[in-house]
Amino acid sequence: MKKMFLAATLLVTTLLTGCGGNATDKAAAPDNKDVKKIVIGLDDEYPPMGFKDDKNEIVGFDVDLAKETAKRLGSEVEFKAIDWASKEAELKSGRIDIIWNGLDITDERKENMLFSDPYMDNRQIVFVAEGKEDTIKSEADLAGKSVATQSASTAEGYINENENLKKSFKEFKTYGDYISAFMDLENGRVDAVVCDEIVGRYYMSKHDDKIDALDVAVGPVSQFGIAFRKEDTALRDKVQKAFDEVVKDGEGKKISEKWFKTDLLIHK
Q: What is the pTM of this model?
């Protein structure tokens, strides 16, 4: 009986070791290899952060960052399109583990989600036609200019809330999409476009011989973060550590330059 008990004990010990040990062992593990799979929720119609390409595959800036981070973790990663309006419910239900898709960190969201450190500023900046970059040095220099943006955008909301700024413009035009605004900028119909930096720089990466991005922020600046369930501190810490390595060793810079022709990541 003693031999049978000892054999059974050894078998259980071997099985536990083969499965990664107990919870204490996992918590103490210095590498991140126990994160088997991460399911990332995203809006798959949000270029360049996450969207479907002509092969119907989900691609994008955040997608590339997430893939590289998962590789450092030794984890499989799955991208799942979600109803963006229900993103918090999707996270809480366990259908997804992370939201990584140009998500602004806000005090309201912090009440329901756990965030990584900010990895990117979300600014509204000014874009002008090639060769006109010296005409605008600050928000005040938009006075007397024909200014454009997208309807119902953050930029339109800010400008409409600041009557003095709006009245200083020669003209304020809104468009159904940013592409139309940029086309008018290229054709000289407007002097400046105020746009989300990530959207504008992505457009500019395809038309960099026609427009320039200015380091001129319009309105407040928010920051993007990776969101987790409130209780998933261990997962957050492991993802944060792996992502920090991606930024520190320069791989993040390469990914940013691929999508934006510049490094937009926050470096600690």
A: 0.78
